[in-house]
Amino acid sequence: MKKSYPFFVLLVFSLSAASLSFSEPAVKAEGKLVYVSNSGNSMLSVINASKSEVVNTIKVGLWPAGLAVDSATGMLYVVNSSPSENKVMVIDLKSGSEAASIKVGTGPMHIAINSAARKGYVTNTDNSNNTVSVIDLEKNVVTDTIKVGKEPFGLAIDPGRKKLFVVNSGEGTVSVIDLNKNTVIATIPVGDVPIGAAFSPVTGRIYVANHNSNSVSVIDPEKNKVIENIEVGEAPWYIGVDTLHNRLYVPSRGSHLVSVVDASSNKVLGSIKVGREPLGIAVDSGNKRAYVTNHSGISLSVIDTESNTVISTVSLSLTPNSPYAGSPWDVVVE
Known about the structure:
Blueprint: H1 7-11, E1 33-38, E2 43-48, E3 53-59, E4 64-70, E5 75-80, E6 87-92, E7 97-103, E8 108-114, E9 119-124, E10 131-136, E11 141-147, E12 152-158, E13 163-168, E14 173-178, E15 183-189, E16 194-199, E17 206-210, E18 215-220, E19 225-231, E20 240-242, E21 247-252, E22 257-262, E23 267-273, E24 278-284, E25 289-294, E26 299-304, E27 309-315, E28 328-333
């Protein structure tokens, strides 16, 4: 029988607002590197944050999507979502070489790291799977598999409550997992086609981007219920959390902008125009920067989170310093 893959897994491979001003731009982010997964060419772009230029490219597996860094060990985890691979590649950031390869479920999409517990969690999006793989980060092996809702996509950990929130894009829900038992303890209805999730240590809330509802659902993780919905731009994907200013940054693929949300009031402060089809976002609160991947723009927008303006755009297309191009997806900074 012919196997079908979820719409958003297939979408990985297709290429297809006014600015805010609060204060003077912040200083440059010295010593940081930004890592971008390029789903179209199986490459990882390495960008010098202070210079806003590509300094290296690393070959990874097929259709790289989600990224996560374990700062304690200096390991980068790259989810290779191709159905022919179904693995997580572990890269030693010091050497830039592959340290391990971990086989997970079918159609993996994202990974969340609990460094203190030495665990990783991977969503397996294929609708014949609908699971989360639990990884032992010391041994680099899958130790458990948890059944969740249809087409799990993004995920976020609440470390204090020891809960994992898994976004089920195929049914408009979030599965809540007790990390002590690796069992689903609640299912929360959210918006239509939820994609990304994030946890804010400032507010103690979970935030879910609803792609088809053009909204962000705010979840109380203690009560496991939605307490508010915030209207944002068209087709939001992921959510970045700025702990310094207590804000959310929400890229909207359909609007080509990033919505800026005051997390204390859940009010949209404004929007920032970026490149075409923004998807991934990483916020470096300490250096007052946010990094946004522009999927069809094949670029990375650098936002100053003090002035909320784009201060630089890094091309990920064919240049002498970056000889590979292809559908940038996720981004992390370390």
